[in-house]
Amino acid sequence: MTEAVALPKRALCLCGSLRRVSANRAALEAARTLAPASLRLDMYPGMGALPLFSPDAETDPLPQGVLGLRFAVGRADALLIACPEYAHGVPGGFKNLLDWLVGALEFPGKPVLLLNTSARGSHHAQEALMEVLRTMSARLLSAEPLSVRLPGAGCTTEAVLASEERCRELQIALGVLAAGLA
Question: In sequence order, what are the beta bridge partners of 114?
C-alpha cells in the first residue's frame, strides 16, 4: 500500500511596494527561498496592473486583472504580506488591491501573516493594514506584524539571505505561517 504524499500548503506573497528593488519584495523572495518543503510560496505580480477600484466596476464581468487576483487568492491556503509605510499609511496601490478583495468570496477567513521590514519599526501603516484586514474578515496569524528589519529601498534578496539574523527572523515567520496552516 502506498502512503499518500502531503502536498505543500500554498501561500500567496503580496508585496505592497511597486519599487523594482524593494525591501518588502526582497523579504518575500528570501522567504520563498527559505520556505520548508511543507510550504509553497508564490509571488503575486499584478498589483500595478489592477484598475482603480470602483464599486461600479465590481460587476460581471470583472476586469481580467481582478479575476486573476481573486483566483490567486482563492487558490492560496494563506497570504504572506510585506507592505511598506508611505506618509504614515498603506500605499495607495496596495489599498487598491485590498479594495478589490473586499467583495471577494475567496477572502473571508483567509489566514494572513504580516511582515514589517522597516528598520525603524514603522507602525502606522501596519496598524492600519491590520485594521483593514480584520474588517475584511482575515484570520490574522499573529497579533502583530513579524519584524524582518531591512535597510529599506535598494535592499536585495541576496542581502537578506546573506544575513543570519534576517534569515532567522524569516524562518520564525515561516514557522508561524506553517503552524497556522496545520
Answer: 81
